[in-house]
Design brief:
Structural class: alpha+beta
Number of helices: 11
Strand order of the largest sheet: 2-1-3-4
Largest sheet: 4 strands, mixed
Enzyme class: transferase
InterPro entries: Glutathione-S-Trfase_C_sf, Glutathione_S-Trfase_N, Thioredoxin-like_sf
Helix content: 40-55%
Number of strands: 9
EC number: 2.5.1.18
Radius of gyration: 20 Å
CATH class of the largest domain: Mainly Alpha
GO molecular function: glutathione transferase activity
Number of domains: 3
Distance between the termini: 33 Å
Protein name: Glutathione S-transferase YfcF
């Protein structure tokens, strides 16, 4: 059986994103369950799902039925249960540094978090950076520079290869992108790589299918396009002849259609269709159909 991961609204819940990124990039099987983060009693919903005494998101249930919340605890459990998955860097110096970075992110950067809540709808224009936020950004650059001295592999991620450090710092990159924050070349390159990561693109494509009754972090700033990779032109349609016989995700019968970059594809439900319309190339199953 796969793990179960209970999450909140993908557009805004950075902690939920952090939980999901402990699974998806490492190929660990997980089934996500949605909790109404902004419109209901979270602790009550968790209790109704047999997850008490957990009261915050995300929460995971292991294949053996054990319940665990708090992302640091979840990370260590998964690293222990899946030692060959590469959740922590293999080199001892890098692994030690990664644990330090993760702990600091878990407890720190309160100015950046408070001023720039994660949102995936677009990039705010004209955000004014306070001294406290600037200090957090400088600290980020300092930590990333130190990580470069500890890594044993090269790559776009904090320690070269993707690790739990990137799982914990991914929401920071999305904050940098979502508010157009002025950062060093090092952090700008990391943000660009994060926006292009297939797991992040899939998360955002799913986020855009969800309806949140109200923006939990409203702002008067104008919002421009999302700065990530541009999706293929796509739209939902009512009729047409799809190039595929069954849904590329489930293999089930086709009930919904979309035109993707000039081709008609069929899907088994509106969510499969809409997440594809939002970013077709984020999904390998769809990319294969498009050639």
């Amino acid at each position: 059986m796969p793990y179960e991961l209970f999450i909140g609204a993908r557009t805004y819940s950075s902690w939920s994103l952090r939980g999901w990124l402990m699974f998806e990039p490492f190929g660990l099987p997980v089934k996500t369950r949605m909790i109404d983060l902004y419109g209901g009693n979270v602790a009550q919903q968790l209790a109704e799902n047999g997850l008490a005494p957990a009261r915050l998101l995300p929460v995971m249930r292991t294949p053996k039925g054990h319940v665990l919340g708090e992302t640091l605890a979840m990370a260590e459990h998964l690293a222990e249960a899946h030692p060959d998955a590469g959740l922590w860097p293999a080199a001892p110096a890098a692994r030690t540094a990664a644990r330090g970075l993760v702990a600091e992110m878990h407890a720190g950067f309160t100015a950046l978090r408070g001023a720039c809540p994660m949102q995936l709808l677009g990039q705010y224009k004209g955000f004014e950076v306070s001294d406290a936020v600037a200090a957090d950004l400088a600290r980020l650059d300092e930590l990333f520079a130190h990580a470069e001295t500890q890594r044993s592999t090269e790559g776009p991620w904090i320690f070269g290869d993707w690790t739990l450090a990137d799982t914990f710092y991914a929401p920071v990159a999305l904050r940098i992108a979502g508010y157009g924050l002025p950062v060093s070349d090092r952090l700008a390159a990391y943000t660009t790589a994060m926006l292009a990561h297939p797991s992040l693109r899939r998360w955002r494509a799913l986020a855009l299918t969800e309806v949140v009754e109200r923006d939990p972090y409203p702002s008067d700033l104008p919002r421009g396009p999302w700065p990530g990779p541009a999706p293929l032109p796509a739209r939902a349609i009512e009729a047409g002849m799809p190039v595929n016989a069954t849904c590329p995700f489930s293999g089930r019968a086709i009930t919904d259609l979309a035109e993707i970059d000039g081709r008609i594809l069929g899907f088994c439900n509106p969510t499969c269709r809409d997440k594809t319309v939002n970013d077709a190339l984020a999904w390998p199953e769809v990319a294969a159909l498009l050639g």
